[in-house]
Structure formats: C-alpha cells, structure tokens
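Form 7-S
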Amino acid sequence: MIHLAKKLSGMVESTMSRVSARHRAAQREPHPGRAAGFVGTRWFNPSVNTDTQRQGLFWDVLAGRVAPPPAAVTLGWELLEVHPEQGTIKVAFRAGEQFVNPAGVIQGGFLAAMLDDTLGPALVATLPEGQFAPTLDLHVQFLRPARPGRLIGTGRIVQRGKDVCFLAGELAGTDDKLVATATATARIQPVPH
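Output:
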C-alpha cells in the first residue's frame, strides 16, 4: 500500500512538473493566433461572461495567456458557463467518429476523460494563481451509449476542504438524457516551479 501511495505521489508530481513547465513556457512565448476566447479552437462561447482579469491556470487559458491543454483540445472542450463562487461549470465536448468503439458508440475512456475535464475545471476555476488540483480518484458510471456529436458536461464542487475536494458531475447528450455520471477526489497543491 505504501509503495502504491509513493508511486501515485510520484506520478502526480511528474504531471505537475510538466504542467508547470508548459505554463511557464506559454507565459514567455506568445501562442500563435491567440486571441481572447479563441486559441486554435473555439474555446468558449463569446456570450459567456468570463473574467479575463482573473489569474490562475483556468483563467489564463480562457484569456489566451496560456495554451489550452492538448487533451481538452482533442476532446473539443468548450466553456458554456462557469460560476466560481458556486463552484459550478457547464461545458460542451465534440465526440468525433475517432472516439467510437467497434459497436459505433463513444468508447467509455473518452467519456471518462470528458467527465474528468468537466469536474476538474469546476474546482480549478476557483483556485488562485499558483495552485492546481490533480484528480486523485475518478469513479464513472456509464448509463447509456453515447453517439458521436455534441455532449454537455456539468460539474460541481460537492465539498471543499483545505487540500482535498470532492466533485461530482454528469455528461448528457443534446437530448438532455444522461450518458454518464462521475464523482472525483482532487487535491489542491501548488504548481511546481
């Protein structure tokens, strides 16, 4: 058990080092084609009220000061609503044909990644500059098959502690029928330098 905990801690530190390096590099070098709200892809709906003066990884990406995470770009992540004071978020994803399994429905790993990229930002949007919250645990329940197209994720902070936070959310099709739900545990920590 101790070996597993040390291995997990090492994996989190390694991931955080890569995030920190990418964050520092993006601050030094302008991202080509960067403009508020658009970073090589439709990053958020321009009608969404976002505070581009806020600082922190989430807000730096939205303001175009930092390149978006490649995984979010792959998933077609788009911000629809964010309410940091309430700890809630609503996002959309583009589930492409490249995500389907042999049965023609979206493979569960992609749905899990979408849920992780819904729940995490609900928390990260509330954090000050210099903090991040990697996911420690993600539990996904698949409710029905998801077809290629637009999927809507809603996420919220269930309980926030000093370091450990509990999150929950859902992923639905455009028909508002739930596809999957998830709960997660995340740990707030400084972004390594």
